[in-house]
Amino acid sequence: MNSRKNSNQIMKWLQEQRAGYSSLIKVLERQKASVLKDDEGKLLQTINEKERILGNLYEIDRKMQFAIESLGQKDHTDLIKVSQPLRDEIEILLSQALTLETFCETHIEKKKSSLRDQMKNTKHGRSVLKGYGATLLQQSRFSKNA
User: Fold this and answer.
1) Theoretical Cys-Cys bridge with 28: which of 89, 91, 99, 100, CB 3.0 to 4.6 Å?
2) How many domains does the chain have?
3) What are the backbone angles phi and psi of residue 72, rounded to the nearest 5°?
4) What are the average pLDDT values for consecutive 10-residue runs of the chain, which has 146 residues?
């Protein structure tokens, strides 16, 4: 490929990347809703969809890196100037995606910590009950065991 074709292809890939990050944000918004509703089924679906989109974005990035390396210095400099607005949009989308992902991660971590505390309290409660003795718990006021 010549440099001109590479530059045009890189611009197309940047547009695909922008569209991919827009799609990712929509999926992350659904992920956030699933996390807030504690809907594990939908959460798993959105995570799978998110992984698919991220895989596509990775492939686009890999192709772009290879094409960028094949550009001459002047073409590379020109491409940087021409693609700056598009790259700025992508950066904003990426920042939004990271914000949503961080929110979900933090919320899930809090939920995990809460569940861990509940499990500890339940375990502690069972230990306290054992202190009363099994015989008292098994005896009934109405039975002849008393």
Assistant:
1) 100
2) 1
3) -75, 170
4) 81 96 97 93 94 97 92 91 96 97 93 79 63 54 54
